Amino acid sequence: MAVVKKKFVFVIYAILIHAAFDFPLVFVQTGHFTNIWVVELYVAIGGLIAFWLIKKARGSL
Questions:
Q1: The whole model's pTM is what?
Q2: From CA 3, how far away is CA 31, in angstroms rounded?
Q3: What distance in Å separates the CA atoms of residue 18 and residue 41, rounded to the nearest whole number?
Q4: Residues 20-58: b if buried by 16+ CB within 10 A, e if exposed
Q5: DSSP letters for the chain
Q6: Are 36 and 42 in contact (CB under 8 A)?
Q7: Could you list the pLDDT tens digit for every one of the 61 residues in the chain?
Q8: Are 61 and 36 in contact (CB under 8 A)?
Q9: Do 59 and 52 form a contact (C-beta atoms < 8 A)?
């Protein structure tokens, strides 16, 4: 989307979204957080939000 619309701000958004999505997964891998079900729920909600945003963005291309 950043390439098509020629807006660098979308690259920044992508980096921030990836960081927010990976943040709790790092804590599980390092052993600081052990409740895997909360992380699985976080990933599922993130997937649903991503699906909704992709469907919404496809209409604007």
A1: 0.65
A2: 38
A3: 17
A4: eeeeeeeebeeeeeeeeeeeeeeeeeeeeeeeeeeeeee
A5: -HHHHT-THHHHHHHHHHHHHHHHHHHHHHTS---HHHHHHHHHHHHHHHHHHHHHHHTT-
A6: no
A7: 677 778 888 888 889 988 988 888 888 888 888 888 988 898 899 999 989 988 887 876 5
A8: no
A9: no
**CB contact at 8 A, 2 and 10:** yes
Q: Which two tokens stand for residue 14?
A: 């992508």
Question: Which position has the token pair 């990836």?
Answer: 18
* Spatial distance between the Cα atoms of 42 and 50, rounded to a whole number of angstroms: 12
